[in-house]
């Protein structure tokens, strides 16, 4: 089985570029079928209101629940104080099994990590090159699994991608996906050093062609077990607890955050760094 772990769907409400405007699936699903991909994990495009965007994705997912999985997109700043509510709705009403966060919106927060821990869902966090954060996430939240897509940079930032590989190797709860990775030598290094258990196949559809993205996985190895892990096994493993509703019996206390709890800042500030 082949599962595409990274695909956008639905309309954005911006008009900057396709990423916040529209993610149409029509051609993409035909390409996926031709490429032998059986299932696709969907989440929204950039949006100013992720409650609406997630609801729209859930309509697509739940029309064909055997064909699609869904992740809840959340914004660390705009959705402050309602992250739990958004994830709760996505997991319990829509049957979603993960959270998507983008550094372009805002830096990930404790509120998001604690919601992920409560619901036993992985967090797919595009760090946009901000790799140092991964160390904190991995050590502060060892029970939460983090998928850092594109080896940390969709824009081929070599310094970021090379820096992510040791973190993938060292932290059992850090993963990456193959979507959009152009520097094949780095993907191969990640495979050799961190291993097939840390890499998920993803396409970043509907804007990238799934067959082209898939080929990168098939040229990494011919080992069937390794391929199966990257193509489906890792995704299924990471989402298994959520899909089985493990949180219902886990008895964890519900995390409480208010709109004003956490002084979130857009800029990274090291108090001891003199400019
Ligand atoms: Zn993406």
- Total beta strands: 11
- The CATH superfamily bears the name Metal-dependent hydrolases
Pairing-aware structural class of the strands and helices? alpha/beta
What is the CA–CA distance across the termini?
52 Å
Output the number of helix runs.
11
CATH topology: TIM Barrel
State mean pLDDT (0 to 100 scale): 94
Order of helices and strands: EEHEHEHEEHEHEHEHEHEHHH
Name of the top-level CATH class: Alpha Beta
Query: Roughly how many Å is the radius of gyration?
Result: 18 Å
Helix content: 40-55%
Largest sheet data: 6 strands, parallel
Domain Amidohydrolase-related: 46-234
Protein name: Amidohydrolase
Keywords: Hydrolase
GO molecular function: hydrolase activity
Describe this protein's structure.
The protein has 275 residues and is α/β, with parallel strands linked by helices. It has eleven helices and eleven strands. It has one domain: TIM Barrel (Alpha-Beta Barrel). 41% of the residues lie in helices and 14% in strands. Strands 6-7-8-9-10-11 form a six-stranded parallel sheet. A three-stranded parallel sheet has the order 1-4-5. Strands 2-3 form a two-stranded antiparallel ribbon. It starts with a strand and ends in a 25-residue tail after the last helix. The site of zinc ion has 3 residues, from β1.
């Amino acid at each position: 089985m082949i599962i595409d772990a990274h695909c956008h769907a639905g309309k954005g409400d911006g008009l900057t570029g396709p990423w916040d405007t529209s993610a149409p699936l029509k051609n993409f699903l035909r390409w996926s079928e031709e490429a032998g991909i059986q299932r696709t994990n969907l989440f929204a495009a950039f949006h100013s209101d992720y409650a609406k965007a997630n609801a729209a994705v859930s309509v697509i997912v739940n029309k064909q629940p055997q064909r699609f999985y869904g992740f809840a997109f959340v914004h660390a700043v705009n959705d402050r104080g309602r992250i739990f509510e958004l994830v709760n709705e996505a997991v319990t009403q829509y049957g979603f099994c993960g959270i998507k966060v983008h550094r372009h919106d805002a830096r990930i927060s404790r509120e998001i990590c604690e919601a992920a821990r409560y619901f036993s869902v992985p967090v797919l966090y595009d760090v946009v090159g901000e790799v140092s954060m991964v160390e904190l996430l991995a050590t502060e939240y060892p029970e939460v699994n983090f998928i850092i897509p594109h080896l940390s940079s969709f824009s081929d930032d070599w310094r970021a991608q090379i820096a992510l590989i040791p973190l993938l190797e060292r932290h059992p709860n850090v993963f990456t996906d193959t979507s959009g990775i152009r520097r094949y030598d780095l993907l191969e290094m990640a495979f050799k050093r961190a291993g097939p258990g840390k890499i998920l196949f993803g396409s970043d559809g509907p804007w990238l062609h799934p067959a082209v993205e898939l080929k990168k996985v098939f040229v990494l190895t011919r080992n069937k077990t390794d391929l199966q892990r990257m193509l489906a096994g890792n995704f299924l493993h990471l989402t298994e607890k959520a899909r089985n509703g493990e949180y219902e019996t886990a008895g964890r206390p519900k995390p409480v955050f208010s709109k004003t709890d956490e002084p979130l800042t857009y800029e990274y500030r090291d108090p001891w760094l003199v400019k």
